[in-house]
Amino acid sequence: MAWIFLFFAGLFEVVWSYFMKQSQGFTLLVPSILMIVSMIASFWLLSLSLKALPLSTAYTIWTGIGAVGAFLVGITVLGEQINAGRVIAALLIVSGLLLMKMSSPN
């Protein structure tokens, strides 16, 4: 169950980062509220996963899901630039996440 909590915590990290961008520096109320709610959900789910997973594993995977997810949202939703260097960097992050998961004792 801890891995499921961690996965959704990472997804909510992507959501709050997207709404942080949409809030335009916290000048728009609805995106600002959605950012805060999704941030609370992300931290709460992360805290639940930490009951069973090592901090180093959980935090690394949580931030990795957020980083790669934000990268994908930036490209697919926000029309940000895609190039070989950015794709390779994202693949290296995913490789690191897989290695972290495979080497975790839980």
TrEMBL record:
PANTHER family: GUANIDINIUM EXPORTER, SMR FAMILY PROTON-DEPENDENT DRUG EFFLUX TRANSPORTER SUGE. This is Guanidinium exporter. Keywords: Cell membrane, Membrane, Transmembrane, Transmembrane helix, Transport. One of its GO terms (molecular function) is transmembrane transporter activity. It holds the Pfam family Multi_Drug_Res. It is a multi-pass membrane protein. Its main location: membrane. It comes from Iodidimonas gelatinilytica. Belongs to the drug/metabolite transporter (DMT) superfamily. Small multidrug resistance (SMR) (TC 2.A.7.1) family. Gdx/SugE subfamily. It is found in: Cell membrane. One of its GO terms (cellular component) is plasma membrane. Signal peptide: none annotated. GO terms for biological process: xenobiotic detoxification by transmembrane export across the plasma membrane. The chain crosses the membrane at residues 27-46, 58-78, 84-100. InterPro entries: EmrE-like, Small_drug/metabolite_transptr, Small_multidrug_res.
